[in-house]
Amino acid sequence: MKHPRSMKNILAVVLSGLLLFSGAAMAQDHVEKHKIDFLISSVEHSTGAKFIRNGSEYDGKDAAEHLKMKRDKVGRRVQTADDFIRLCASKSFVTGKSYLIRLPDGKLVRSETYLREKLKEFNAPAK
Question: 94, exposed or middle or buried, with CB in 10 Å at 0-12, 13-18, 19+?
Fold first, then answer.
């Protein structure tokens, strides 16, 4: 039989490990939330771009509101910025059509491509 004190030590080590792990997970959640907020803000504050959803064009503010609504509807399934792009910001769940963005120069790009480029900007080391 183990000494009660050694069991307490084991329990303390296990609890400490769990606390460290949960703290790291919370920090990761915060980073991913910040990335998602950055992506939504990039859409909202885009100048001269039009967001095309199911054939209709929207300005950045309306597009950002739609993305927020989808993020809220999807709920806990969105854990990362990649989840957000894939589940909320790439296509219509109703029609299956990809969301597009008409850039100020007139070029059309898929919103997924646009947002993945924005995510690269976010992840790029500061100069």
Answer: exposed
